[in-house]
Structures are given as C-alpha cells and as structure tokens.
Design goal:
single chain; about 5% strand
Length: about 500
C-alpha cells in the first residue's frame, strides 16, 4: 500500500526536475519523461497482482475523523480493481505518447514546458484514480484540467488559443457544478471521505438533496466526459492540440475526469439503489453514440472527425455502465480500455500525417499507403477496431454491450433495451462507413503528385503506433480466463456498490 503515493509523487517530481534541468541538459526532458511513464506503468502492472491478492488496499494520508469501530479515517488513497484498471489504461497510453513525443514535439519551440505540463496532467489523472477523498478528487481534477487547457493552446496559433479558451470556460463551468455538489455533500454528511460519505448516506437515506447532488455531479462530470448534450467544447479542443495531447485527451483524460468519477461516485458512494440516475446515463450514452458518429460523417478535417468519434465511443461506454448488469459493466469497462488504445493510435496516426504533410484535410491526401506504409497499416488496424470488425478488440467490447442490452430486455421485458441495442449496432455501422471514407481518401487510390517525395515518420513515432496496433489485436485476449481477472476485478468493484465502504474500512483497520 505504501506504493500508492508514488503514482502522484513520481510525475510531480518529474515535472519539477524537467522544469529545472530541461534547458540546461539537452534531452533531459525526453529522458526524464519516459523514465517517469515507464516506472508508472511498472507500478500499474504490479497493482494488478496486489488487487488479485488483497482485493482492496488503503494508504492513510491523514486522519482527521473517527468512525466507531473503525478508528481514524480521513484523507486516504484506495487501490481496488477499478483503480488498477484505470491506472494501467492511463499509464500505458502515457508511456507510448511520451515515446512518440520525442520526435513529434521537435517542431514546437519549448519541449521543456510541454513535458512539465504533461507530467502535471498525468499526476492529476493518477491522483483522481487513487484518491478516496472527494475534495482531493476535485483538487487533482483541477490540476489535470488546468494543465490540459495550457497543452491545448501549446502551438499558440489563433485556432488553438480559441479552442483552449472555450475548453477552459466549459471546464470551469463543469468544475463549478462539481464543487457545489461536494459542498452540499459535506453539509449533509460532515465528511469528505468517500467511504465515510457512503456510510452516512446509508444511515440517513436518500432524499431530494441527495438527488439534487446526483444531478450536479452528472452534469459536472458529464461535461468533463463530453457526453451529449455537454460536448460542445470537445470538437474544437481535441483537433487543435498537438497530436500527443489529442491522444491523451481523447484516450484517457475524458475517461478519468468524467467516466471514472461518474462510476465511482454513483456506484460506490451514492449507490445506484438510491437514484434512477442510471436510466439517464443510458439515455445520454445512446444519444452520444448516434449524435457523435452522425456529426463525424460529414467531416474532412481528420482530427475533427476523430474528435466526434470520441463523443460516439464514450456513448458506448456509458451505455454499458448504465445497464448496471455484470455483463453490461464488463462490456463498458472493456470498451473503455479498448477505446483508450485505438483512439490514441488514431490520433497519433493523424499526427504522423500532419507531421509529414502539414495538412489534416483528407481531400488533399490519397495513396499515402505507398509512401507511409507503417502509418497506413496501423491506422487500418485502429479503424477496424473502432468500427467493431472482428477479431480486433473493439468488436468484442461492442458485442458484450449489445448482448447485455438484449439480456436486460429478456429479463425485464422492456423494449427500451432492444432500442439501445439497435442504436449500438447502427452506431457501429455508421462508424465503419466513416472510417472507410478515411481509408479511401487518405491511404488508398492514386498517390497525389505533391506527396511523391515524402517519407515515413521517424522510428520512435512508428514504434508507438506499432505497439498500440499490437495491443488492439492482443487485448482481445483479456476475455479469456487467464487474463479475465484484470477486467473482472474492476467489474466486481462496481458491483460491490456501497459495500465499497465496508471494504475500505476493513482494509483501513
């Protein structure tokens, strides 16, 4: 349990050292950033075995309250199955993005500032995942958010500054909803520890105030997750950022700041039995699925097209989670991991095209498979994954979500679940159509004459894309019995519901 603080200490320390040494020692930023993300990935993978053995581990940062029969409880860090899944997801993508950035970020003026902000964003995301305290979750959320606002504007072009400003305004509105919700929780329960809040709510019961708090959290974290109708900031912010940051924003940031927080608070703190919020989550998920992909179909800016698909794929995750069944949650969490991988790969691929061609317009491309085979083939793997084509990982997670909808229909007899299943299938077909357009206009056909002399991107950028493409294929194996505990432990953490408090108190003794 003593390793838990290092998920925050290591990136914060790296941010400090990079800002101190970056301009004095050449390449120190590249080296420190990659050592940091590699060590965090190692700790994340180690956490899987710890969860398998101990189920829940608690590290006490500070004890300011007293729970009868439990003892001192206050600010703490918690490791369970859901924490472990999120840590691995975030830190796998982070490592591959920092490797990619070694070459890609050379075209920008100040890599030192980039890596410093990147490490702060990473510290914030890891902090959100491991904290067991509601106010500290907000503090880490703000650290990650503010760093991401600056990173979106990193190129300082007019488009990037405008997108960053819009992102910052919408992010601040979201943070206001969240902070108001936390203040009301504290006024009602007199505690900020998540397990302690759950204990007090179970004793007091739910009421109009708890339902109002649930709505505040859904709107606040829904904005962070870019769920429809809270998505307006995302199509500008993601395309404007440098490609490594687009990969982080779409791959892991919206999931950590939005989806993870929704799952943790509604399942483990408030409890799904006390609110009908999950039916709203499913509806928002279905709307996001269809609206995102329909808006993507008409896009010619490659990165903007990918940004709209982020909204659509988040919808799949929320639909699975919103079902609240073991199969639905398994599908939702599996798709969360899969989307992090293939969407990061797609954004890195779009960055490779922009790095070489200096354009994101699909209509100006064509025949690039001939000159950029690694980028073309890895992009094809990612395109097939996001469209749900077997045997790639996206197929299996989408299949689980659709089967979970059908299962809920059979068990409840409610037609709405079949409608959700049809929405998921329709979204997948439209996604395939969208990425067939990408393949046709960017990589197939006749090579545009002005691209006759271009070359493939540098080796380290290729390496990141190849590894992510390999994960798109290999992660399908996460459903076989040998590897299934990685996902199953996370499912059990959510199905535990408000039993989370008992597990935390037991581990804290």
């Amino acid at each position: 349990m003593k390793m838990l603080p290092f998920f925050v200490i290591i990136p914060l320390g790296a941010a400090f050292l990079i800002s101190l040494l970056g301009k004095k020692i050449r390449k120190s930023g590249d080296i420190l950033a990659n050592i940091c993300t590699l060590s965090l990935l190692g700790l994340s993978l180690y956490s899987i075995s710890l969860v398998h053995i101990h189920k829940v581990l608690v590290y006490k940062v500070g004890g300011w309250g007293w729970v009868p029969g439990i003892g001192s409880i206050g600010i703490c860090m918690v490791l369970d199955g859901l924490t472990s899944l999120m840590l691995v997801t975030v830190n796998v993508v982070s490592l591959l993005v920092t490797i990619y950035s070694i070459n890609y970020m050379q075209k920008f003026t100040d890599k030192v500032k980039f890596y410093t902000l990147f490490m702060l964003m990473l510290a914030g995301m890891n902090g959100i995942i491991i904290t067991g305290d509601l106010f500290n979750l907000f503090v880490f959320l703000e650290i990650a958010s503010i760093a991401s606002y600056a990173l979106v504007a990193f190129g300082t072009e007019a488009e990037e500054l405008e997108a960053s400003f819009k992102y910052a305004i919408m992010g601040s509105v979201a943070s206001s909803f969240i902070l108001l919700g936390i203040a009301l929780v504290y006024s009602y329960t007199s505690t900020l520890n998540m397990a302690d809040i759950s204990l007090v709510l179970s004793q007091k019961g739910s009421g109009p105030l708890v339902n109002f708090i649930a709505v505040l959290f859904l709107v606040g974290f829904g904005l962070k997750a870019a769920l429809v109708p809270f998505h307006a900031w995302l199509p500008d912010a993601h395309p404007s950022a440098p490609a490594p940051i687009s990969a982080m924003l779409s791959g892991v940031l919206i999931k950590t700041l939005g989806i993870y927080a929704i799952m943790r608070i509604f399942f483990n703190v408030i409890g799904i039995a006390t609110t009908s919020i999950l039916s709203i989550v499913m509806l928002l998920g279905a709307l996001s699925m269809l609206a995102g992909v329909i808006l993507a179909l008409s896009q010619w800016d490659f990165k903007r097209l990918l940004a709209y698909h982020s909204i659509s794929q988040v919808g799949y995750i929320m639909l699975g989670i919103g079902l609240g069944t073991p199969l639905g949650i398994l599908g939702g969490l599996f798709h969360l991991f899969n989307h992090s991988v293939f969407k990061s790969l797609l954004f890195l691929g779009s960055g490779a095209l922009d790095y070489t061609l200096h354009t994101r317009d699909l209509r100006q491309m064509g025949g690039l498979r001939e000159r950029m085979p690694v980028t073309a083939n890895t992009n094809l793997v990612a395109s097939m994954s996001i469209a749900g084509i077997p045997p790639f990982n996206g197929f299996w997670s989408k299949l689980l979500i659709i089967l979970a909808c059908v299962q809920s229909h059979i068990q409840s007899g409610k037609m709405i679940y079949m409608i959700y299943a049809i929405c998921a299938i329709t979204g997948s077909i439209l996604t395939l159509a969208s990425f067939m357009k990408v393949q046709k206009y960017a990589f197939f056909g006749k090579l545009n004459e002005k691209w006759q002399e271009i070359k493939e991107v540098p080796a380290l950028m290729q390496l990141s894309m190849v590894i992510l493409a390999a994960i798109c294929v290999v992660s399908s194996l996460l459903l076989i019995p040998l590897f299934k505990p990685f996902l199953q432990n996370a499912v059990e953490a959510l199905l535990l519901g408000t039993g989370y408090k008992d597990a935390v108190f037991s581990a804290a003794k």
